[in-house]
Amino acid sequence: MAASEEVWREAWVGSPFTGKVVIRRDINRVEHLAVLCEAVTTRYGQEAEILDDGRTIFVSLDDEIAFGVVPRPNMAPLAVNVWRLASKRKATSQSFRKPKETKAKATERPSKQRVTAGEAAPQKGAKWQAKNKAEAPAPAPVSNGKAPLRMLGLVQRQNKKTGRYQVICQDISDVYGQDAEIAAEEVPDDLKPGDRVSFTVEEPKHNAATIWARNVKVLAARGVKRHRPVAAGDGEELDGMDQLEVKECDGPSLFMAEEPAPPAEEEALLDFQGGLYDDDPIADSIEFLQAEQCPETPTPKPPSTPEEWQLAQARLFGSLPPLKPNWIRIRAKSTGKVYYYNMVSGHSTPDEPRLSDR
Hints:
This protein is of the alpha+beta class. The protein has helices at residues 3-13, 38-44, 103-107, 170-176, 281-293, 306-311, 313-317; strands at 17-25, 31-36, 48-50, 64-70, 78-84, 149-158, 165-168, 180-182, 196-201, 212-220, 226-229, 244-246, 256-258, 267-270, 327-331, 338-342, 348-349. The chain is 15% helix and 25% strand. The relative contact order is 0.09.
């Protein structure tokens, strides 16, 4: 039996190491799962890497796991035979903690509660209602004293593991390395994937496993134009957008006259179908002129959702190098910059994950 085969057999027989699942980034800023274990780091000089994304082996961030290790030449050791250890997690929210009874209160006799007219009598033997994790509210993040930021994002489909909606926001992804999730109690009525929303994010005091999106408001549904009153101090600067009018001349002209901005109490039409993140009135007027000059050959509608961008990859970026599986290119309409989005994990990055960089 070869020496390398003996190492594999020894690693798969048992799981002698224990550690905590964390996220790390390589030199190309590509995220991967690793195991925080002092024994492995001392023995091999590096943390063990999990090649799987955690879905098939049923582990996630901050889980305590048992695993075996297979060393690899010039690479980080590989974690194999991974399985999650049973552990009780402490609740971080104050609503999950039962108040401690003082010695004086413990000796007092419980007084009978009076039930007045119009009030329901308390149920006998009522227990804590937050037994189910899915029904319990998400813990509020610990604020560091700063005012919450108002952000814009696009709602992604529900996570198969947590059942929560994710919000695509380039700023959140750049700062925290992951997309924000909408807590169950913060989900608006009739929220659907593809909706354009505004939300607040309180910067956590410490790095948290989940970035929560709160105070979620739907600005425009997918494929539907909505009117929304423009209010001052609503976070992102959506108001003050001048209305543009194209003047007709003998030949094609791009001269545009500015009109005064509408009053704050009037409603302004917010059309988010034109771009994924920002609306550009100048680009919209140019597209209008092109459509007027060539009515028989209309230009294709620019993509507005990740699924539409995925279908338009060959048409828009066919001459560029291929990307790794599940990655697509998306161009911001206002800036023209291209960033990269993973259709499976929902992460976005400005760095190009080329297929040749494997």
